[in-house]
Design a protein that fits this description.
about 130 residues, alpha+beta, OB fold (Dihydrolipoamide Acetyltransferase, E2P), 2 domains, 4-stranded mixed β-sheet, 3-stranded antiparallel β-sheet, 7 strands, elongated, transmembrane
Length: about 130
Amino acid sequence: MFIFWLLIFLFIIPPLFIMDASWIGVLIPFSGAIVMLWIWFNTGYTIEESVIKINYGPIKKSIDIHEINSIRSARNPFIDPALSMDKIEINYAAFKTIAISPKNQEEFVHQLLRKNPHIRIERNNR
């Protein structure tokens, strides 16, 4: 989250004041800021019927809950549709993985287990 705002303040806002008033000099940083804000305010996860719906700015993804093999907690800075480093990593289908960061991870996992009790919960040794 800190890195996100740092990028906005370092790479988008200063060029608006340093560059001359050309349209390209304003348009590129401004459009980058719009996309970053879109991602920030439109990231969310919902469970509907037997599908997890993931929104990450302009990106939308659906995962069938019955294809989920395992879930484990993860803490990594890699880019995923998550705004936090504290994530849950979902392994689904054949060798597909995605990490998300719902606000209440325990409740989210509990809801998934209600829909698919065959999901393996892997424990981390941290």
